[in-house]
Amino acid sequence: MSRVAVLMGGWSVEREVSLVSGRECAKALLALGHNVTEIDVTRDLAALAAALNPAPDCVFNALHGKGGEDGTVQGVLEFLRIPYTHSGVVASAIAMHKPSAKAVFAAAGLPLAEGKVVARAELAGGDLLPRPFVVKPVDEGSSVGVRIVRDGDNGWSSEARAWHFGEEALVERYVPGREITVAVMGARALGALEIRPTRGEMYDYDAKYAPGGSDHLMPAPIHPTAYAAALDIGLRAHRALRCRGVSRSDLRYDDTRGEPGRMVLLELNTQPGMTPTSLVPDIARHAGIDFAALVQWMVENAACDS
Fold first, then answer.
1. Given 2, 18, 21, 142, the catalytic residue
2. Does the annotation count 14 as an active-site position?
3. DSSP label at 64?
4. Is 78 a residue of the active site?
5. Predicted TM-score (pTM) of this structure
6. Interval 14-56: pLDDT, tens
């Protein structure tokens, strides 16, 4: 079996989630008979290079967020010529920067929410779109910093002045309806799942990772035409960014006027969570792929881009 180094932790706001993902994957790889090394990644590049010497057969990248999902670590692994799971440098960097990804998706003809990038100072200058609208950081994951601004929301102006997620923000028109996510594995869309948060309307950080924070309905109980559209959008988004390995696309399904409704692509995640409450393992399981088989496939398809 292979010598696999599992990268986890990192320094982003998603560090704790990454540690859980990494440990779950390492446990599965050990059970499969691989020789596994767990590496808690920090900003110390020399320490990472030392931990990867001698070079493993491949790296399982279980990092989430800045540094681990945005092309940074991928670039290091390319330089070291160590095959790694998930997408390469360019796809990772574009997917992590939401405005760049939206530009690629628009060029591919994918359905998107109306929106624009604004400077931090503009946020406090009044509503930039009719309410309700959504404000999100341009380069965070796990719904960190995402805010829905509704009619009668008097707290937004003070929050806008205190915005601390960088010098820019992405403002989008709110799309009503249901939360749908699609997993893609290689050249195949595995399925579409509906997420129903149990503690509020929004699928936020707690709903994603707290036990019981959301219900996962697999397959998504939507009109067959809408289900097929979701799979098509997820696969086209994966191809548009030239992703490899596994990705997950998040969509909104506006069925407020009846079914079949309108599918809207929100974003694509090149390194989906692999925790006990994560979505991709649920979708894969329904497709007949258990967690161990999913992790094994990722290792077998590890690669370098150059």
1. 142
2. yes
3. -
4. no
5. 0.91
6. 999 999 999 999 999 999 999 999 999 999 999 999 999 999 9
